[in-house]
Amino acid sequence: MGSVSMLSFILKVLIASSAISVGIKQIGPLLAIPASMNVILTFVLLPTVLMGIALGIQYQAQRR
Prior knowledge:
The chain is mainly α. Helices cover 81% and strands 0% of the residues.
């Protein structure tokens, strides 16, 4: 990866991260999400589970 494409990638990640952060800050308080243990566990574990599924699919595709 060249330095220009690496810089471009870093800028894209920075912009996407900033957009997500602003979205959470502005829209988050408008959502009526109850503070229960099930909701908390879902929000904490969901990214890990989704990443595991994505990596499992990628691994299966590479084995074929």
